[in-house]
Design brief:
With 400 residues, the protein is an alpha/beta fold. It folds into two domains: 146 residues, Nucleotidyltransferase, domain 5; 192 residues, ATPase, nucleotide binding domain (Nucleotidyltransferase, domain 5, 2-Layer Sandwich). It is 40% helix and 20% strand. It is built from 15 helices and 14 strands. The protein has an eight-stranded mixed sheet, with helices on both faces. A six-stranded mixed sheet has the order 11-10-9-12-14-13, with helices on both faces.
């Protein structure tokens, strides 16, 4: 069985073709700058050279045609024709309260994705374009939607409700939804496999730390709490997002700076976080380089980020009633030994002890996957590269 995984953005279309027999990625790539000048497709098939092709890509439908041409090409391809693809798994940002797992796409499902545009105005429209393009070109191939929010639908009401007038939840669906669910689900399952225990017996804290960052508390394989909320703005301070702040700051800034809604949203989402604090960059590679040169604001940004992670680890340890595994994943989690060390510093009292040698050399010795805690640490601390595409492919294969 071969599954095509599609992740459509507003001006891009990422893809992977995965052979589920051995979970081997046969080909992957991205169509970039859709609807813009200098569009191109980048493609890499297993055992073959990577290639880039610059062309005019006006729509997601045009992009998908190029992807399918690349997959079936006699030079760059890996399949004879598209009949070898058993199903297509689509990454969809928001499923609201309707979906707690992946689902086969039909008109009813598409309507729900449309209805949730109000909750994910930047992402769901692009996801829909990817789905509709595939349905036009591959009308007889099963399509599956896998939602970033689905994994967190197991949260109890006391975790996902806000202390606002209840009518706003009933009228507008204002509640915590959480994001990065596909990533949290994958690394939690992978951690259980790596330590040789059934996930149903484990309390896990998963730290997805990238430009967007969230933490999840996973009990017996189910999410019971997560740091992102109604939108991806809540929780940890991130690359350019402020994270959780006193809500009154918003009205204060609107009054003092004469901001409108669009301007204040831009400040909170694009000018804040690590970029806002450091004044340099939201990229941790830049921040760590500046901190090494004794840039105090870069150091402060890193310390704020790590301290916030530590607070969530402590809080979720309490929510879970103890923790067995702590996972670091995504760009920062997988690559920043400094953030991992600072986030775990002082957590010996809940059984978290980092082995500095393992933490410093995991990329060289264990290819960025493995246990970095000491042998006597009560909590297993792991670094696990996330693989959302594989998780989407697994859910798609299971459904069909």
């Amino acid at each position: 069985m071969k599954i095509l995984v599609i992740n459509a953005g507003s001006s891009s279309l990422k893809y992977q073709l995965i052979d589920m027999k051995n979970e081997l990625v046969l080909a992957k790539g991205i169509a970039e700058r859709i609807g813009m000048d200098q569009s191109l497709i980048k493609h890499k098939s297993v055992g073959k050279d990577k290639f880039e092709f610059k062309t005019i890509i006006k729509t997601h439908l045009d992009a998908l045609k190029l992807v399918l041409d690349a997959l079936t090409s006699s030079v760059h391809g890996v399949i004879a024709d598209m009949s070898e693809v058993s199903a297509v798994g689509h990454r969809v940002a928001h499923g609201g309260e309707t979906f707690s797992m992946g689902t086969l796409i039909n008109d009813k499902v598409l309507k729900v994705i449309h209805d949730n545009i109000v909750l994910a105005p930047l992402h769901n429209p692009a996801n829909i374009m990817g789905i509709e393009a595939c349905m036009r070109i591959m009308p007889n191939t099963p399509m599956v939607a896998v939602f970033d929010t689905a994994f967190h639908q197991s949260m109890p009401k006391e975790s996902f409700m806000y202390a606002l007038p209840y009518e706003y939840y009933e009228k507008y669906g204002i509640r915590r939804y959480g994001f990065h669910g596909t990533s949290h689900k994958y690394v939690a399952q992978r951690a259980a496999f790596l330590i040789g225990k059934d996930i149903s017996s484990l309390n896990i804290i998963s730290c997805h730390l990238g430009n967007g960052a969230s933490i999840a508390a996973v009990k017996t394989g189910k999410s019971i709490d997560t740091s992102m909320g109604f939108t991806p703005l809540e929780g940890l301070p991130m690359g350019t997002r402020c994270g959780s702040i006193d809500p009154a700051i918003v009205s204060f800034l609107i009054e003092k700076e004469n901001f409108d809604t669009k301007q204040i949203n831009n400040v909170l989402n694009k000018s804040s976080g690590m970029l806002g604090v450091s004044g340099i960059s939201g990229d941790f590679r830049d921040l760590e380089a500046a901190a090494a040169l004794d840039n105090k604001r870069a150091k402060l940004a890193i310390e704020m980020f790590s301290y916030s992670i530590k607070k969530y680890i402590g809080a979720y340890s309490a929510a879970l009633g103890g923790v067995d595994c702590l996972i670091f994943t995504a760009g920062i989690g997988e690559n920043s030994l400094m953030v991992r060390k600072l986030s775990c510093c002082g957590l010996d009292f809940i059984g978290i002890k980092i082995d500095n040698e393992k933490n410093n050399s995991i990329d060289e010795i264990l290819c960025n996957e493995g246990i970095i805690s000491t042998s006597d640490s009560a909590v297993k601390v792991l670094v696990i590269p996330t693989n959302e595409e594989l998780m989407i492919a697994r859910e798609t294969a299971a459904l069909i």
